[in-house]
Amino acid sequence: MASGQKKETKGKLNFPHTYVIIFLLIVIATALTWIIPAGHFPRVKDLATGKSVIVADQFAFIKNTPVNPLDIPLKIVDGLNKSSSIVFLILIVGGAFHVIIKTGMFQALAGKVTKAFSHKEELIIPAFTTIFALACMSMGVNTFIGFAPVAIILARTMGYDALVGVSMVALGGAIGFSTGTFNPFTTGVAQALAGLPMFSGASYRFFCLVVFLIVTNIYIISYAKKIKKNPELSIVADLEKSENDLENSNSDLEFTKKHIAVLIIVLGFFTLLVYGGANWHWKLNQSSALFIWMAIVAGLVYGFSPSTIAKEFVNGAKALLFGALIIGIARAISIILGDGNILDTAVYYLGNWLASMPRILQGAGMFLMQLVINGLITSGSGQAAVTMPVMLPVADMVGMTRQTAVLAFNFGDGLSNYVLPTSSALMGFLAIANISYEKWMKYMGKLFLIWLITGSVLVIIANSIGYGPF
Q: 1 lies in a domain?
């Protein structure tokens, strides 16, 4: 059954379609531009970072610029245009992996891995999450969206579901990115704005990474054990029934020389993908092009005709169209809030609210405030440029170290990306896995609450110990 669709059940209230949820959020954002006063902070260029930052003590209300509700469809089209790179990445990755899956290589390899780890399957989950957490200490999680299909097939072979497979990559990467140990895009920018030595305080951030990794693995493994024992308890049971028919049809395949050749090609392209992202600063367009080449080369080496490669590529891309479009549609929310000039107003009010909180709770309050702002400003470096000039004076005023303010920003900017429908990383992973947003939230809701508590405690501890150097 396609993601986002449900059978009609008489007498039972059905959860709204994912597109309906996103559209309602767009309508709410539009309404807020009529309710919240427009405001503006002057911007100046920060010499240390080259970023345009706000002047914290010069906020002023300006003439309201509410968004016309009749323009909502136009804003959606604008969102699709501005999200085109990741929308096309999702479609291309889906097409490329469908070609690879049709060779049977992943299925045969997963069978061998499962036999090798017989009765030790649970070790694979923390191994995957740790690898991707370490990888995302210095780069964005978007880089690894293409790894999700591999993890999903492996998870299903071990008796788990797509949620477990996605979690091994996405949530591991989320921890690495959100704790910001050596992240130049978030920690680096925020620390430069704060006047802190680059990547100072890394030991405590790494400690936070370990804590988050432990609680996240406990949650994933607990869910994995439950659904392996009772597959009908899987949140995506309907998806598993349809997808396993495709993937398990080749589950007993022999791992042939052709499969080895395809595996070498896939590993080679993934190595190039990671190296290109880390050293050549590849963006989404370069990654998309690489997946096209991977599909062509692997398909030809396996023996597929050009027409077969093209047909399977289109079939794979078609299956992910639903999720890919969500990314662009959700982008309309941030466009509307920006056009309504209410983002600066939100930062101004939240900063005043933080200053009024009891001192012991101010670190946690700043973390929660950054969570809220991340729903409005989806760029990590952009959020740092807008919020840190406000948060740093507030931190100085209430006696909070600037390093703690940076930590609160890291947590707030990163963790909420895994519950916000405006997050390109989250929606990209869900599109690849063909998992609807509402089912993801049914799975992720409890873990996100655990993350909120864990993050709040860690920020409170940082504030209490004078996490510095200042």
A: no
343: pLDDT strictly greater than 60: yes
Are the C-beta atoms of 445 and 163 separated by less than 8 Å?
no
DSSP string, 39-87: EE--EEE-TTT--EEE-TT--EE----PPPGGGHHHHHHHHHHHTHHHH
Positive or negative: CA dihedral 91, 328, 424, 381: positive
What CA–CA distance (Å, rounded) separates 445 from 270? 31
120: in domain:
yes
Residue 362 within a domain: yes
Tokens 């995302």 correspond to 136
Half-sphere exposure of 103 (CA within 13 A, CB side): 32
The yes-or-no verdict on residue 428 having pLDDT over 60 is: yes
Backbone phi, psi, residue 444, to 5°: -85, -20
Tokens of 72: 């909502």
Q: Which amino acid is at 335?
A: I
Strand partners, 44: 53
Does residue 87 belong to any structural domain of this protein? yes
The model's pTM is: 0.74
**What is the distance between the alpha carbons of residues 467 and 470, in angstroms, rounded to a whole number?**
7
- What is the rounded CA–CA span in Å between residue 155 and residue 122? 10
Q: Are 165 and 451 in contact (CB under 8 A)?
A: no
Total tally of structural domains belonging to the chain: 1
In sequence order, which residues have a C-beta less than 8 Å from that of residue 36 and are 6 or more positions away? 340, 342, 345, 346
The two tokens of residue 95 are 């097409």
Q: How many CB atoms lie within 10 A of CB 420?
A: 20
| Structural domain of 400 | 51-57+67-257+306-465
Rounded to whole angstroms, the Cα distance separating 182 from 176 reads: 9
Distance CA 102, CA 344 (A): 50
Residue 5 tokens read as 């669709």
Task: Please answer whether residues 57 and 279 qualify as being in contact, where contact means their C-beta atoms are separated by less than 8 angstroms.
Answer: no
Nearest to 183 by CA among 168, 158, 201: 201
Lowest-confidence region among 120-134, 347-361, 384-398, 449-463: 384-398
Token look-up 């906020």 returns 59
CA–CA dist 162, 237 (Å, integer): 9
